[in-house]
Structures are given as C-alpha cells and as structure tokens.
Design goal:
By secondary structure, the chain is α/β, with parallel strands linked by helices. It contains 21 helices and 23 strands.
C-alpha cells in the first residue's frame, strides 16, 4: 500500500526497485579511475587565468613559528585564530594570486554559495560586514575573503602564487624545512596543512578527449576571454557558439542558466540528474540584520547544523531548503526496525517532493522524466536553484541524457553519446574537485616526517590520525582536511572550528613548553574505532546510492579506503571530541616531548 505524509503519496516497493534500477545503470568497474588529474594530459587546464603571469619576486630564507599551507577559509581562519592564541609569527603559502581558496578559483557565471550567507561567511560580527544577499554570489564571497585578509593583517604574512614543493622534518633541530616553487626556504616549528580540500579540479577520462580542437576549460578556470562578460556580466561572445557542459552537480546547476542566456545552443550532458529544490534568494533586510544581538552568528551557525543533522532545535532560525530537506544520514540514528522504516519513507517522500517540482516546471514530459533524481537524499548533495530547471524550457537548451552510461567518446569537433555526435565549439567541465584522492596528491607535496618516512609511505595502507589532525611520525604537523575528520552541510562551520582547534592547540603547546606533539599508535587506533562506531547504518545506506563522490563512485572498498572515511556523526559531536581533547590540558593520546 502507498504511504502518505503531508500529501505526498509513495510506494516503497516501487521506489526501492526504481532506485536499484538507476544504480545498476551507472555501475562501472573503474570507480575513481574514470577521472584523470590535470597534471597529466591536461596541465594547461590547471593554469591560473586570474593571476598576474609576469609576477616574480626574490626567494626568501626565513624562520617562523608556523607555516600554514593554503589561503582559503581554513588557512585564513587558522591565521586569525593563531593571533588570538598569542602566536603572531606565521607564514601563509598559497598557490593562487590572492586569498579565497575555492572562492578564488570559482568565478564561473552564476556561482554562489548554497548555504545562507549569515551562517556561511565567518566572523561577520567581528568585521561588521552585512552580506548583500541571503545567498551571496562568488564575487562577493571572494571580496569578503580579501576583507578578512585586510582586517586581520594576513596579507603581510602571505606568499601568493607560490607552491610548496617539499616539507622535511629536521629531528635534530625540531623544525620543518619547507621549500617552494619560488626558491624559498622556510624553517618552522609547526606546519598546518589547510589546503587541498576543494581546489584541485578533475576531469573525466573520456576516450578521445585530448583530440578535441575547440575551446576547452574547467569551471574553476573559466575563460572569459573566450566567453566574454564576467562573473556578473552577460557572456557576449557566445551568441554564435555551440557549448557543451559535462556534469550536472552543484556547479552546473548554477552555470547552466547563464550559459542558456548567452549561447546559440547549449548541450547539457547528464549521467545522473541532481535533485533541485527552491532557492528563493533575495536581498538582505538591513533593518533585520542591524537588529541582531551580539552572539547571533554563533547561535545561528549551531542552530543550522542542528537542523540539518536531525537534532530539531525548538526554533529553526534559518528555515530554508536545507532545513526542510533535513540533510542527515537517515539510517545512522535508527533506534528500531520500525524507526528505520519510517526514516526510509521520509527519505522517499522528500525526494518525491523534489521530483514533483520537476513536473511543475518542465514543459516537455520526456525531458522532465530525465531530470528526476531517483536515489536517497543523502546520496548526493541536494541542490537549490530557481533558474536551472526553467532553462530546459528554452529552445536553445538541449538535455543529452546518457542513461547513466556517461559520454561514449570525444571527437575533434564534438561529443558522442550512444552513437550520436553532437557538434560543439566549446567544451566546459563542471566535473568538480578531487575529494577522495590521497592527501599528498591534493596538497601537491609529500611531507617527510621522522626517519625520512613520507606521508604517502606512512599512509600507504590507510590514514592514521588522532581526530584527523595529528599523525604519528609527523611531529608538529597538523591537518585540516576531510580525512578522518568531520563534515557538514555548512563546510565553513567545520573549517572554522578545526582552525580554532589547531590554533589553540599550538598556543597551548607554546604555553606549556612543548617541543613536539604527534599522535600515538594507540590513540590513532582508538580514533579509528570511534569513526567506525559513528557510521551506524550509513554504510548500508550508501550501497543503495548511485555512484558519486560521497561513496567513492561505489568502488570496491580496500584497507586504505576503509581508513580514509570522515566522521559520520553530527559535526557538533566531532567538535565535542576536539573540545574534550583541548580541555583535558595534558594532550591525552598525544606523544609529547618538552623543551
């Protein structure tokens, strides 16, 4: 019998079968290997179109207390919190030409944050900044990153357009020796790896892709010289161009409407559709913003995280698409078979509501059917946009659904799907960032710890850490990444609390005369058990999903992958582990030597 909840009637059995059918269409044996690194055949796609190509400077040789790798939110917030912890001697090294990280690279048209600005942008009370919109656009977020850099004196401590090429632990000196692409040599007591999370673009390794003779670029390296316009301007050079875009995730959801406005023809190549809810963006109510009381942002940030992890606070302060969808692992907290069944029904109903939205917008029934997402709400990041679906009603926009198989091949002049070639002039990859690859690969260098052992060697059978931050054999190295750490819908909430933890930990080490700190093997094993214990029913849940980066493309798990998981519980629970560690005062589970 169909189930009904708030008017949404579904058949559990039929949907289970449909979900399985859609999953089976997309299964492939190559898993993550279907993507290729830009450093291989496509190095030109990884060049920085935003930085000054003539920039040069003399190499520096210096000694500092902390080297921070990365100038995105994680690196900036680490620098800000280091100062609050009394550590003012640090250096930030950043590949890009300015602060921003993901928001330095993401300048594609239509790009915005999908978490409301008032919870996403950190330190709004400290800077006094009022976001112009509820969901800020990428240019505004980038400008806010620059504001943080100016407000907290980070620019004088930053080395831009600089890539770290090596970091070697000198045990006799008790310091890291860091070298860079600019010939720098920096000696530091601590190194904080706060980069490599969402910055390294990936492309699908489609046969023949290197033969394409048209224009080709990744969304994180948008070529406005070719398209015309800018992040806030109409792309006036596409009026006679046939454009193809590969990918239908959060990036394409935002870029497609802008391309649809400008291109002669737009071909959207889809392997798996995204679930797209209402965005309902709008300008910030200045009177409301000015009425907020001190402490409002921390309260709102925590409230949002509670709302999207099922904690159901008494008042939903944010009350948007996210808190309506309730982004939570709907099987991790099951208390009984009946509770599990109820959550499954709720999940089905949530997705059915999003599928019915497609029918209410798309005029052509055949196109509407192809745009409906048949998988659990936690299988992929739900998207929110008001212009993506309507774009497919335009006569110049063509959905090329690959029935889950992906693109067959690329020719010199077009894309082939199921034997049909679609001629295009420009190919755009909206294929996202590397997320599950090895940390050293994403960071761009392989730290060498005690006894000359590299991180890649030490983690060859899987990561081993305490809280995802400290790792045995790598004294005074602290990591902010997704490896064995937390994760949340509001990613900056995770980054901000992690940065605070690292900065306060360094401050405490300095106050207590610590020479070195790293994780013990026992604490690493204990943390791994905590990670496994937090999974709950989530492991079963992801096996029902279509392939994607949340489940490593459903690649067969091995020992290494099994240890590289994230903390599957609430982000607030993860933060509690960090807080408890610092509050103990004696660094429980860490191997500490004193000066």
């Amino acid at each position: 019998m169909p189930e009904q909840n708030e008017g949404i009637e579904i058949s559990v059995g039929e949907l289970r079968s449909k979900y399985q059918e859609e999953q089976l269409k997309r299964l492939r044996t190559d898993g993550l290997k279907q993507f290729v690194s830009l450093k291989d055949k496509f190095a030109e796609l990884d060049s920085d179109p935003y930085a000054d190509p003539t920039f040069s400077r003399d190499p520096i040789t210096e000694s500092t207390e902390v080297v921070v790798v990365g100038g995105g939110f994680a690196g900036m917030l680490t620098g800000i919190d280091l100062q609050k912890s009394g550590v003012t001697d640090f250096r930030i090294v950043e590949k890009g030409g300015d602060f921003g990280g993901t928001w330095y690279w993401n300048r594609y048209p239509g790009c915005m944050c999908d978490v409301e600005s008032y919870t996403y942008l950190p330190l709004l009370e400290e800077t006094g900044y009022m976001p112009t919109e509820r969901y800020a656009g990428a240019p505004e977020i980038f400008e806010y990153c620059q504001l943080l850099g100016r407000t907290f004196d980070l620019y004088d401590r930053a080395l831009f357009q600089t890539v770290i090429t090596g970091a070697v632990w000198d045990d006799s000196a008790g310091r890291w020796i860091v070298t860079t692409s600019r010939g720098d040599t920096i000696s530091s007591k601590y190194i904080v790896i706060a980069g490599g999370i969402l910055h390294k673009p990936k492309v699908p390794g489609i046969p023949g892709i290197e033969t394409f003779k048209g224009k080709m670029f990744h969304t994180t390296r948008w070529n406005y010289d070719y398209t015309g316009g800018g992040p806030r301007e109409f792309m006036d050079k596409l009026g006679d161009k046939r454009v193809g875009i590969i990918g239908t995730g959060a990036t394409a959801i935002q870029a497609v409407p802008k391309l649809a406005e400008a291109a002669q023809d737009l071909f959207v190549f889809q392997r798996t559709p995204s679930a797209v809810g209402v965005r309902n963006n709008g300008p910030t109510d200045e009177a409301w913003f000015k009425s907020l009381k001190p402490g409002w942002q921390e309260e709102r940030v925590v409230n949002f995280t509670q709302s999207v992890t099922g904690a159901k606070p008494a008042v939903d302060l944010v009350n948007d698409g996210w808190t309506d969808v309730m982004w939570t692992n709907t099987q991790a907290a099951a208390e009984s078979p009946e509770h599990l069944a109820a959550m499954e029904v709720s999940d089905f109903q949530t997705m059915e509501k999003l599928r019915r939205r497609v029918d209410s917008i798309i005029e052509d029934p055949e196109t509407a059917a192809k745009l409906k997402a048949y998988y659990g709400k936690n299988c992929k990041r739900v998207c929110f946009h008001d212009d993506y679906l309507p774009a497919f009603n335009k006569p110049n926009v063509h959905l090329v659904d690959t029935e889950g198989k992906g693109i067959e091949r690329v020719t010199e002049t077009g894309i082939v799907v199921d034997g049909v070639e679609y001629p295009i002039d420009c190919l755009i990859f909206a294929s996202g960032f590397e997320v599950q690859t090895d940390l050293d690969s994403r960071v761009g260098f392989d730290p060498i710890g005690r006894d000359g052992v590299s991180l890649s060697e030490s983690w060859s059978h899987g990561a081993h850490t305490l809280h995802g931050v400290l790792s045995g054999g790598f004294p005074n190295m602290m990591v902010i990444s997704l490896v064995q750490a937390g994760f949340g819908t509001n990613f900056v909430h995770f980054l901000g609390r992690s940065a605070r933890h690292v900065a306060e930990l360094i401050g405490a080490c300095e106050a207590q005369g610590v020479a070195t700190i790293e994780a013990t093997p026992e604490s690493e094993e204990g943390w791994l058990m905590v990670l496994y214990g937090a999974i709950g029913g989530g492991a079963d849940y992801v096996t029902t999903c279509t392939p994607g980066y949340f489940n490593s493309e459903l690649a067969a798990p091995d020992e290494k992958a099994a240890k590289g998981l994230v903390f599957a519980g609430s982000l607030l629970d993860y933060h509690a582990h960090l807080d408890e560690f610092r509050a103990a005062g004696d660094f429980p589970g860490a191997l500490v030597t004193k000066v």
